[in-house]
Design brief:
The protein has helices spanning 45-50, 75-103; strands at residues 9-13, 19-30, 33-41, 56-63, 66-71. By secondary structure, it is an alpha+beta fold.
Length: 104
């Protein structure tokens, strides 16, 4: 059985035309839009270690007929999305712990 993990990766280009790589941790699609929880991926191991461990919540917007990702500007919405993502991460972490316990 192949249990290898293959993350979903995305590259975003900022306003200074600099590329940033992220892992897509989770997605929420609801009546308010489509939102991604993104975790930065670094080429340099030291940068990974120095990272704060925070993830970014981005929303899909349409600009000039093209879909783009942008930071969520509405603080209340950001808090709501963060709570949903955190609950999902906690459930996922609990499931992984349960699987590891079963293997012992």
């Amino acid at each position: 059985m192949d249990n290898s993990y293959k993350p979903d990766l995305i590259t975003l280009i900022d306003e200074d035309n600099v590329e940033h790589n992220f892992e897509i941790l989770d997605t929420i699609e609801n009546e308010k839009g489509v939102f991604y929880a993104l975790y930065p991926i670094y080429d340099n191991a030291k940068d990974s270690v120095d990272d704060s461990g925070e993830y970014y919540i981005m929303e899909v917007i349409e600009e000039d007929g093209e879909e783009q990702l942008a930071e969520v500007q509405d603080e209340a919405l950001l808090d709501e999305l963060s709570a949903i993502f955190e609950k999902r991460f906690e459930e996922l972490f609990d499931d992984v712990e349960d699987e590891n316990e079963e293997k012992k």
